Amino acid sequence: MSRSLDELRSRRWFAATDMRGFAHRQRIQQMGLRREDVLDKPVVAIINTWSDLSPCHAHLRERAESVKRGILMAGGMPFELPAMSLGEVMVKPTTMLYRNFLAMEVEELLRSLPIDGVVLLAGCDKTTPATVMGATSAGLPVIFCPAGGMLSDRYLKRGEPQRSVGAGTHTRMFWDEYQAGQVSECEWIGLEAKMTRSPGTCNVMGTASTMTSMVEALGLALPGATAIPAMDAGHVRMATSCGERIVDMIWQDLTPQKILTRGAFLNAAAVQMALGGSTNAAVHVVAMARRAGVDLTLADLDAMGRKVPVLANLFPSGDRLMEDFHYAGGLPALMNRIRPHLSLGELTVTGKTIAENIDGRESLDDEVIRPLDRPVSAAGALAVLRGNLAPEGAVMKSSAASPKFFRHTGRALVFDSPAEMHKACANPELDVDEDTVLVLRNAGPVGAPGMPEWGGLPIPKKLLDRGVRDMVRLSDARMSGTHYGSCILHISPEAAVGGPLALVRTGDLVALDVEARTLELKVSDEELARRRAAWTPPPRTAKRGFVKLYQDHVQQAHEGCDFDFLQGDASSPEPEIF
User: Fold this and answer.
1) CA angle 546-48-127, nearest 5°?
2) What is the H or E stretch that residue 473 is in?
3) Is residue 449 reached through a cis peptide bond, with omega within 30 degrees of 0 on the bond before it?
4) Is the pLDDT of residue 503 over 60?
5) What angle do CA 397, 162, 337 make, to 5 degrees?
6) Is the per-residue pLDDT at 491 higher than 80?
7) Edge to edge, what strands does the sheet with 117-122 contain?
């Protein structure tokens, strides 16, 4: 052990011989605990993002008990601290609006209370980066306990082969088929009741699985933890192991600052690409890196996307689900496959290096975790585009897009709001064809506000009826990591702050070249200057509360959408004990 009992942070609250120390010990005993429970042991927080309205986290109350068991067995004292849940789907307008709220809450809970280390219970999209951001800024030893994916379903239809079915990706697929009359009303209702079979995060390689996997790649989770299904008995055991391990980490003073290096973040980027991970990771990983004081940019992600092919055969880039990935060996097996692209000497929560964690972890199913010479997609999981339409960058999940659109020029059809867009797309007389480029703006961090997942623009019904299932779509919004298609997202700067997207007009030509990484508006500089002179920013409707704080301080997508006052070294003074 490298730290003594007297060096524990919680001792400042509980070991003092003055009146305040007496009062702190008194209040602990008020809850039925003994004074020695906090005087002689490390105090461990369990940040729990459970909620009755967060189906992905419905099991985390039980997992908190498993974590507590591990902490107690290792000689620590656990305290469960509830935090904002941020369950996707239910939260409107978007959980992204509140990612920074949860990050601030986690940081302040850990800073203001007598805590020596923390286990993070999270998994649904924004809870993972938010809790990691907050814990990184607090600077205490931390281990991440992922929520795990939901159980898989099977789609059985007489005369057709059996298909694995998950949440998110298949919802979009079946919706398009339902709109086109290929799925009956009765079948649609039946799918609604059976596609999500258990608690746990989306069981495709959406944002939830992308982010938990990247946190494992960063070294903040136990090896293999993120692929274990939420309802697997192994998930219960993993949670207990998290509780046991955090106590040792406290004694070893193994803080995020010793784990979250630039090499660790490049490892996470490599994993994102090999997984065919969500484009949302481009926002979150930059924000996480900045909290750790690490310089990571979209250019770093694009460079990794050019080098590392997609090896995980998982929806939406492939055709399998997270359960299959777990059985095939999970993340350690995938990381072992991409060893040449990893910084293998990075330290992890195990106290060992990445190399030591993945040694001998082989793929057990080469159809799920493909060899390097037989990738799911050589196009790469992420392309960062630049040009006069996206001076600071835009992102595209090229592995889930149609290759026929990788070099495309089309006429823009512009929408200023989702309501306008959905109404127009339902109109059978809409002037649109498969080559049209759909554009949605005022959907970015400031404009929406909160940068919702509106970027998977709907295919107009007129085209769905003709069998069209993809077309080029642009926005300053995000897209669900479970979705697919030729969508260009996170256009930065966004329209609401005067980015070039604000100047596009219906009928303008837009040119996309994925290989060249360009996105250009074919309008002269002189014409764009005239349009800019006539442009006025949309009014901001928030006059108070967190939404106003968000709009006043949120950064742009290429900067991670964190608040401008939360960057870099966050070693704020410890609270005074009065």
Assistant:
1) 55
2) strand 473-475
3) yes
4) yes
5) 45
6) yes
7) 77-82, 43-48, 117-122, 142-146
Those residues with Cβ within 8 angstroms of residue 356's Cβ, 6 or more apart along the chain or in another chain: 350
Amino acid at 231: M
Exposure string for 255-285, b = 16+ CB within 10 A, e = fewer: bbeebbbbbbbbbbbbbbbbbbbbbbbbbbb
Contact 390, 500 (CB under 8 A): yes
Residue type, 465: D
Q: Which residues of 132-157 are buried (b: 16+ CB within 10 A; e: fewer)?
A: bbbbbbbbbbbbbbbbbbbbbbebee
SS3 content of the chain, % helix, strand, coil (to 5): 40, 15, 45
Burial (0-12, 13-18, 19+ Cβ within 10 Å), 166: buried
Question: Partners of 142 in the beta sheet?
Answer: 118
Cis peptide before 391 (omega within 30 of 0): no
277-293 pLDDT, tens digit per residue, is 999 999 999 999 999 99
- Mean per-residue pLDDT for 122-126? 97
Give the closest residue to 172 by CA, choosing from 480, 487, 489: 480
CA-to-CA distance for 95 and 87, rounded, in angstroms?
Answer: 7
Identify whether the C-beta of residue 569 lies closer than 8 Å to the C-beta of residue 293: yes
HSE (CB half, 13 Å, CA atoms) of 377?
28
pTM exceeding 0.85: yes
The residue ranges of DSSP E strands in 281-424, in sequence order, are 383-387, 390-396, 407-415
Crossing angle for the helix pair 233-252 and 60-73, to the nearest 10 degrees: 50
DSSP per-residue letters across 72-124: HHTT-EEEEEE-----TTTSSS-THHHHHHHHHHHHHHHHHS--SEEEEEE-S
Half-sphere exposure at residue 538, Cβ-oriented, CA atoms within 13 angstroms: 21
**Tens digit of each residue's pLDDT (9 = 90 or more) over 151-180:** 998 876 666 666 778 888 888 888 888 988
Locate 366 and state its tokens: 């080469």
Burial of 453 (C-beta count, 10 Å sphere; 0-12/13-18/19+): buried
